[in-house]
Amino acid sequence: MTRAPYLRLPKPRPGAQDAHESLPAFVAERLREAILAGTIPPGALLRQEDVAGRLGVSRPPVREALKQLETEGLAQYRPRRGYVVAALDPQDIAEIFEIRALFEERIGQAAAQHRTEEDLVALEAEVLAMEALPPGSPEGGRAFGLHNRRFHDRIRAASGMRVMGELLGVLANRVERYIRLGGRLANSREQVNREHRDILGALRDGDGQRLGLLLRLHVHDAGARLLRSLKER
Length: 233
Known about the structure:
The protein is mainly alpha-helical. It has 2 domains: 6-85, Winged helix-like DNA-binding domain superfamily/Winged helix DNA-binding domain (Arc Repressor Mutant, subunit A); 90-232, Four Helix Bundle (Hemerythrin (Met), subunit A), CATH 1.20.120.530. Helix content is 70%, strand content 3%. The protein has 9 helices and 2 strands, in the order H-H-H-E-E-H-H-H-H-H-H. Mean pLDDT is 86; it is low at 6-10. Keywords: DNA-binding, Transcription, Transcription regulation.
């Protein structure tokens, strides 16, 4: 079992923690982003003293943060070893994408009714940012993953379906690191960009049925591509 490579992570800048943010939330956010970005790999040991020393906090908020990540499916507690970064097997991934496809369809139907011009402008900006990224580079893959997440988060927010949106966010976190790896593949990105354009067009037209169908197919195809890429690795 490997130890998490915290020394490769930049220390937080002075003042990086918002004065109104709790220490457990601050630690959880730092760890969450490192896990989702793939900086800390599946199976890595999350030693509380390492995290506390790296982020300049005491161990109690680290314990609380790790418990939060466990509820999100990003960390697992193992007796006599402590917390490790959770890994997913192909069956888990398939189930998550199946559930997401159903939820995203309903989210799309609602978003078409409630979206605003501000939503459309923000989504257009995310699509343009993804289309402008250089193909094939690791840096471009990471940026693509971030813009892709913002694109889908914005549609969920536009739907007004808070509970379903929160559940989708949890499910998305569990597979986000694998999605970001897939974002490094140029041919995959080109297809996703085309699908995002179609999704945005349906949202702009207010066509809930078409938008829901496009989102369901988009998520289903993303899951299928991801499972194929994992088998080939």
